[in-house]
Amino acid sequence: MKSSSKTNPRYSALISTLKEVSRNTGAGVWREIAKRLEAPSNNYAEVNISKINRYAQEGDIILVPGKVLGSGLIDQSVSVAALNFSAAAVDKITGANGKCMTIEELVANNPQGSKVRILR
Predict the structure, then answer these.
(1) What CA–CA distance (Å, rounded) separates 98 from 78?
(2) Residue-wise pLDDT tens for the chain (120 aa)?
(3) 3-state SS of the chain?
(4) Is 110 exposed, middle or buried (0-12, 13-18, 19+ CB in 10 A)?
(5) Distance between CA atoms of 85 and 96, rounded to whole angstroms?
(6) Where are the domains of the chain?
C-alpha cells in the first residue's frame, strides 16, 4: 500500500505551518493552499509568466501552489510566491522589478493572507 504522506520534508513542514497559521488567524487562504499541496505532486500548478502578466495588476501578490515557469513576458511589478521557480521565471520577474519568494516567506510576512491572489 502506498503512503499518503509527503516524502519531501519541506512540503510536510509547509503543510503543517499553513494549517497552523490558518487556525490561529482564521485566514482560509492558507487552509486552501494546504489542501492543494496535500494532493499528489503531479497535480501541482505549473503557471507561466504570461498567465501571471494576464491576471495580475501592478503591485499584486500572486501565490502559485506549484512551479512558476518562464514562458512569456511580464511588464508589471508583482510579488510572486511559489513552491519552485524556473531560472528564466526568476530572471523575468526580477527584471520587471518584481519579487520572487517562497510560500513560507509569504506566510511569515502576511499571516492574515490579505490581498493574495491564487493562480493555478
Answers:
(1) 5
(2) 455 577 889 999 999 999 999 999 999 999 999 999 999 989 999 999 999 999 999 999 999 999 999 999 999 999 999 999 999 999 999 999 999 999 999 999 999 999 999 998
(3) CCCCCCCCHHHHHHHHHHHHHHHHHCCHHHHHHHHHHHCCHHHCEEEEHHHHHHHCCCCCEEEEEEEEECCCCCCCCCEEEEEEECHHHHHHHHHCCCEEEEHHHHHHHCCCCCCEEECC
(4) buried
(5) 15
(6) 9-118
* CATH code for the structural domain at 9-118: 3.100.10.10
C-alpha cell at 49: 509568466
Whole-model pTM? 0.90
Q: What are phi and psi of 58, to 5 degrees?
A: -55, 130
Q: 36: how many CB neighbours lie within 10 A of its CB?
A: 17
User: Are the beta carbons of 83 and 103 closer than 8 angstroms?
Assistant: yes
Cell of 50: 504570461
Q: Which three cell numbers stand for residue 12?
A: 510536510
